[in-house]
Write a structure and sequence with these properties.
Elements lengths: L1 H23 L4 H9 L1 H25 L4 H12 L4 H9 L4 H12 L1
């Protein structure tokens, strides 16, 4: 168990990098060029991610009879930028991977 704790963060980072490489291996520069020429989609994703999602989460936390810890967790998850999990769901759902990766980069920056 101690060995796992020692290398846990390195293993998690390696897993994230390998997952992102695996999902992005099928993409070409032209896929990202298509996303960058249509900047409206990036702005819409970021608007939904940073404004609409937190507002919906705050409304849910306010109106549903949730324990304070759960309500706080819902709001906290809603205000965090997207990460590799959103890219995984986009990949599994057959969505626009180039847009998802671009939105992840933009929200992280």
């Amino acid at each position: 168990m101690e060995l796992f704790r020692q290398y846990e963060s390195a293993l998690a980072a390696a897993q994230l990098v390998l997952a992102m490489l695996g999902m992005g291996a099928t993409l070409r520069g032209s896929d990202f060029a298509g996303v960058l020429t249509n900047r409206t989609s990036i702005v819409l994703v970021l608007l939904l991610q940073f404004l609409i999602a937190p507002l919906i989460a705050a409304a849910m936390a306010n109106y549903l009879p949730l324990p304070p810890g759960i309500a706080f967790g819902i709001v906290l998850l809603a205000v965090m930028p997207s990460g590799a999990l959103s890219n995984l769901f986009t990949h599994l759902g057959g969505g626009n991977m180039a847009l998802s990766i671009t939105a992840t980069i933009a929200s992280t920056l």
